[in-house]
Amino acid sequence: MSKHVLIAGVTGIIGSATADIFGEDGWQVSGLARNPVPQPGVTAIRADLLDPASVGEALAGLRPSHVVIATWLRQATEKENIRVNAAMVRHLLDALRPAGSVRHVALVTGLKHYLGPFEAYGKGSLPQTPFREEQGRLDIDNFYYAQEDEVFAAAARDGFAWSVHRPHTVIGKAVGNAMNMGTTLAVYATICRETGRPFRFPGVEAQWKSLTDMTDAKLLARHMLWAATTPGAADQAFNVVDGDVFRWSWMWERIAGWFGIEAEAFDGTVRPLEQQMAEDAAIWRGIAARYGLVEPDLLRLASPWHTDADLGRPIEVVTDMSKSRRLGFTGFQPTDDAFFALFERLRADRLIP
Fold first, then answer.
1. Is the separation of the CB atoms in 101 and 64 below 8 Å?
2. Does the global pTM surpass 0.90?
3. Which residues are catalytic?
4. What are the TM regions of this chain, as residue ranges (predicted)?
5. Is 8 helix (H, G, I), strand (E, B) or coil?
């Protein structure tokens, strides 16, 4: 049977990791992006998912057996997030319909399924932790739900299987990504080391003290490969996290140690990264010039707003993986090792010194 995956959002943290994992497993990999970049083993396809004509033309003649949707565009309001991101999914699946080749579509969303969209993130009546897949949708508009509904409707019409994958904050490499905690913390730690500024936790006490989890991009990719090839995983939604839990009071020390700096003790004062890094663009340009780094634009590497949202939640966030375990997925990744592997790659690729 054909093993040809089309990855929408192939240049992002999740998409690039998925291309690597499927490629290593012997799949033909096609990657769609608005501005594709060369990736080993990936056939690049340039298209704008907001332009159905562009997508139809770009995908004409393509016959993928599997599709991974790992892309979204941030908008000013949730109403616009719903309109734009649902349309992107719809245009993609509409363009693939004439070929009739698709057997499985994997959609990547996230824990905002349980926590609510950015406009109401971590507020109101939320399900108890650990989050489990059988917990229903919140009674609030959410572009994740709209994306799911587009996939469900197309699957019912066109006869393919689907899976929904809900990671927590994803650790992985990408440049120009809207949500990138790992690289953001690497850049922040580098600035602290180079300037002598204290390495201060930017979040709230609840995140400092409570248990949490995260998701390594390659583990998420392995989960999608598993779901694509496991009949019992068809037409299911899954949480996807590394399998360990930690407290930021421990992880902050671990990250500081990797960069050879001291972690300042958290005193209960909230110091968001958006404030701490507000004037750091020029500092980063200087660091990039001094060490010959390939990306001098701080905004292409760091997303302080997203890290602040995660570390500013007033509630514990722990995710249950029992559903995947019962069906046979055994992947596990220590989260501190995931951070360290990312930092090593950023250094090897000359994105940090």
1. yes
2. yes
3. 112, 144
4. none
5. strand
- Beta carbons of 172 and 13 less than 8 angstroms apart: yes
Helix (H) or strand (E) holding 305: helix 304-311
* Gap between the Cα atoms of 174 and 15, Å rounded: 9
The dihedral sign for the CA sequence 178, 237, 329, 21: negative
Residues 6+ apart with CB under 8 A from 341: none
Looking at residue 339, its amino acid is F
Q: Are 173 and 16 in contact (CB under 8 A)?
A: yes
Task: Count the helices and strands in the chain (H runs, E runs).
Answer: 15, 11
What span, in angstroms and rounded, lies between the C-alpha atoms of 285 and 99?
A: 48
> How confident is the model over 40-77, as pLDDT tens digits?
999 999 999 999 999 999 999 999 999 999 999 999 99
CB 255 within 8 A of CB 189: yes
Q: Is 328 left (phi over 0), alpha (psi -120 to 50) or beta?
A: left
Calpha distance 16→102 (Å, rounded): 21
- Return d(Cα 266, Cα 257) in angstroms, integer: 16
Neighbouring-strand partners of residue 6: 30, 67
Q: Which two tokens stand for residue 78?
A: 């949730």
Q: Determine phi and psi for 342, rounding to 5 degrees.
A: -65, -45
pLDDT digits (tens, 9 = 90+) for 69-81: 999 999 999 999 9
Q: What is the DSSP string of 130-185?
A: SB-TTS---SS--HHHHHHHHHHHHHHHH--EEEEEEESSEE---SS-S--HHHHH
Amino acid making up residue 55:
V
